[in-house]
Amino acid sequence: MKVDLIIAHAFVLTMEGAGVGIVENGAVAINGDSIAAVGATDEILAGYQADRVIDASGKLVMPGLIDAHMHTGLSIFRGMAQDMSHWMRKGMWPLMKNSTKEETLKGSLVTIIEGIKAGTTTFCDFDHSMGRIVSHYAKIGARARVAETVNELSDDIGKLPVGELYPLDPAIGNRKLVANIKLFEEWHGKENGRITCLFGPQGADMLGKELLLEVKALAQKYDTRIHMHVAQGDREIEQMVKRHQKRTIPYLDELGYLDSRLMAVHLTEATKEETQLVAKRGASMIYCAGSIGIIDGLVPPIMDFLEAGGQAALGSDQAPGNNCNNMFNEMKFAAILNKVKRADPKVFPAWLSLRLATIESAKAIGLDHEVGSLKAGKKADVIILDLEAPTLCPIYTDPIRNIVPNLVYSARGNEVETVLIDGQVIMENRKLLTVDEKEAFRQAQEAADQISRRSRDDIAAADSDVYRMMEDGYL
Question: Which CDD domains match (predicted)?
Answer without folding.
Answer: ATZ_TRZ_like
